[in-house]
Structure formats: C-alpha cells, structure tokens
Design goal:
CATH topology: Cyclic Phosphodiesterase, Chain: A
Distance between the termini: 50 Å
Helix content: 25-40%
CATH architecture: Alpha-Beta Complex
Shape: globular
CATH class: Alpha Beta
Number of strands: 7
Radius of gyration: 16 Å
Order of helices and strands: HEEHEEHHEEHEH
Length: 159
C-alpha cells in the first residue's frame, strides 16, 4: 500500500519532495524536472562531451552532509515540512575546476530555500544558515553523468 501511495504521489501530484540521504536535497516537481531535461538537451547540442545527469538524480542540494552529520539521526526520523516551490533561472552556467566541468542552473527562489533550510535546522536543534555561501542550483551535466562528479558551486567558488 505504501508503495502504491508513493507512486500515486510521484506520478499524479505535481509536488517537490525533500529527501535526506546524507545530504538534504529537494527533488523538484515534474514540471521543473522537464525544464531541466530540456536544458540538458541544449547543453549537449553545444558541448557534446557532456553527459546529462539521470532524471531521477536531478536535485537541489539544500545542505551538504558535512554540516548535517551531527543531526543525521534526527533528520532520518523527522517529518520534514513541505518545501517551497522552485523554478529554474534559464541562464545556463558552467563551472570548471581542474579536469572537472559542470553545467548548471540556479533556482530563482534562493531566499525561500534559505528560509526553508533554516526552519529544518531549527527543528533539528541546529544553528540556522549552516552554509551561508550555498547557491541553490541544479547540476544538469558533467563529463560522466554521475552527480558526485559535478562541481560544488558556492559564492566562494565564484570569487
């Protein structure tokens, strides 16, 4: 029954979900995912060496595992509040670091996501704004298609 309900929610309801898997990540709603896939196609047309991240791996990292480690047990068992809706800034950006190369787009709702992570951290007993330099974005492509091979993009990276 639980699997049936999860499939129904995933395929019929158009809502984003937040998941904890070491990192806290926002899995965007189907419309945002479809837009991300469209942008992946544009990237690959322009830069054929890029590999798209799989559809089920497209996400917005809300907080990295390094800042969440002390709250791991709490977050695993916590019912997370519903996340804000997000939309993509259609301006595709590129990050290059050594032999790594990633294309990504920022989400428009930076402040809303910062407020959301602050709410979650407060609920878990942590300090708000655990990563003040985080820019909320979705990595679209890199050289391998493995999300872990994308470049971490923060304000510090831009300096």
């Amino acid at each position: 029954m639980k699997l049936l309900l999860e499939n129904w929610r995933k395929h019929l309801l158009k809502e984003a979900q937040v998941k904890f898997s070491g990192i806290l990540k926002l899995m965007p709603d189907p419309d945002v995912t479809a837009e991300a896939i469209r942008l992946q196609g544009q990237i690959i047309e322009q830069d054929p060496e890029m590999v798209p991240l799989p559809e089920d791996k497209l996400h917005v990292t809300l907080a990295h595992q390094s800042v969440l480690k002390p709250f791991r047990k709490i977050l695993k068992n916590m019912e997370l509040p519903p996340p804000p809706s997000v939309s993509l800034n259609p301006k595709i950006k590129i990050a290059v670091e050594g032999d790594k190369k990633s294309y990504f787009v920022e989400v428009n709702e930076q402040e809303e996501l910062r407020n959301y992570i602050n709410e979650v951290m407060t609920m878990a007993g942590g300090a708000p704004d655990p990563e003040p330099g985080r820019i909320f974005h979705i990595s679209l492509t890199n050289r391998t298609g493995n999300p872990g091979d994308s470049i971490a993009y923060t304000w510090e990276f831009m300096k």
